[in-house]
Amino acid sequence: MTMKNEIAVLFIVLLATSGFLYYENNQLSIKLAEMESKTNARLFSITSEFEIFKKETNQSIISQNVYSHLLSSRLDSLNETLRSTIGRMTNVEKEIASAEQKINEINQALNTTRQEFSEIKKEISENQKSLDARLEWLRVNSKIPNSISGFYSRAVDVCTDSDGLNMACVPFYAEKDLDFKYLSDYSDELYSIENMISRRGGDCEDFSIFIKAFLNSFKSSRDVTLYGWIDGVGNFSILSVSDGVWKYRNAEKREFGKSSELTPYVICYTTIPMVEGHCVIALSKNKINSTNLQNLEDSLIFEPQNGKYLGEVGTNVVVCTNGDKDCVQKVGHVHIIISDDDLFNFYNGKWNSFKLFSSQLNEIELFVNEKINVLTNALSVG
Length: 382
Hints:
Blueprint lengths: L2 H138 L8 H11 E2 L2 E3 L2 H9 L3 E2 L10 H7 L1 E2 L1 H16 L5 E17 L2 E15 L4 E10 L3 E9 L15 E3 L6 E4 L5 E2 L13 E6 L4 E5 L2 E4 H28 L1
Parallel strand pairs: 2-5, 3-4, 11-12
Antiparallel strand pairs: 1-2, 5-6, 7-8, 7-12, 8-9, 9-10, 12-13, 13-14
């Protein structure tokens, strides 16, 4: 091929190549424009989405800050509440500890009180036993004991005559038969008849108890007139036996009444205020107790040591009345009465007695038992 031909061919090829390249370039430009448009659209979308994200993020951050602030405030409030609660719990714990201490103190006090009540109950029981022993002593000494039944039989025989039982004879015969005599006792202790026998006598209350017992033993088997003597004209026969006759001069007989109709009581009255008193026998037609001691009024009284008539209760001597605190300081006022089963004593303006004390002790014991049970239950609950 010639050169011209090669150049023509080359030129043709170049034209063809240029046209192809132009075409390709044009296509590429179109594609690039499309791609640029799509890229711009995507970029705009991304930018919009970013702005939205940023806005949402900012709002979220703002919300988060608000939430954090609210949360912080809430936490502060909760912390304050917690501190307050802890403070209150501490106070409550202190109050509980204080309450427990008080409960322990109360329990100790209750236990101490229960022990004190138990001691009181023990003391009441001992006093009750003492009172029971005294009441039993009165019952035992309300009649002549078997140990001197021989004396009693002999005294009844020699001191009872057609007129009745001579109350002057009984103590006189006791002096001869049992060697009884008056024995001063400044302690004013009450001796039993057995002790009086072993001591060979006693003071006025001992003689009174002895004669009361003699009368009780006598009236349980015989019903005759009791009599004694009073100052008067003539001589009053005390005892008439084979070896002689004993009499009171310037004295005459004084009847006391039927033995079955009379109840003997020992009464003691004031002779020298706050210093001395005397005990005698009162023969009453009425039975007495702690509520009706004034029933002794009109009772005949006589001296148990010699059988002399002394007058009547209410006239020659007066029974103290409740409320009269000065009674024991008044001469001739009865402040002690001894029956077969009780002893009445006027003290601090009122009459008291063994039975009355016993009844009161029973009531106190019931009260103490109730309190002990209450305290025991309280301690068991605690």
